[in-house]
Amino acid sequence: MGRGRAKAKQVKVARRLKYNSVGTDLDRLREELGVGRGDSTHNRDYTDPYEELVDRYADYAREYEESRDDDRDEDERPARK
Fold first, then answer.
1. Who contacts 64 (Cβ-Cβ below 8 Å, separation ≥6)?
2. Residue 53 and residue 56: Cα distance in Å, rounded?
3. 30 near 36, Cβ under 8 Å?
């Protein structure tokens, strides 16, 4: 039964955070998260682990399309007797 008071307090805090976020110290937040101001080297050094799979899938898709085109060409040719 005591849930009403706790929920009301959570709603009050949530509203205060949502509507009164003018005083957010972004520099302090960066320090807490461990993010530097000019820390863009991470994005340059990042390699997508799935990039090789994407390339391989593209190769399979290309081969599949080529084989389908070849099958269509054979179907359109007149049958020999």
1. none
2. 5
3. yes
Close Cβ partners of 36 (under 8 Å, ≥ 6 residues apart): 30
Q: pTM score, two decimals?
A: 0.31
Per-residue pLDDT reduced to its tens digit, 34-70:
877 665 555 667 788 888 888 889 999 999 998 888 7
User: What residue type is assigned to position 30 of the chain?
Assistant: R
Distance CA 34, CA 28 (A): 10
- Give 22-32 pLDDT, tens digit per residue: 777 788 888 88
CA distance 30 to 32: 5
Question: Taking the domains of the chain in order of start, what are their residue ranges?
Answer: 48-76
77: which 2 tokens? Answer: 């040719």
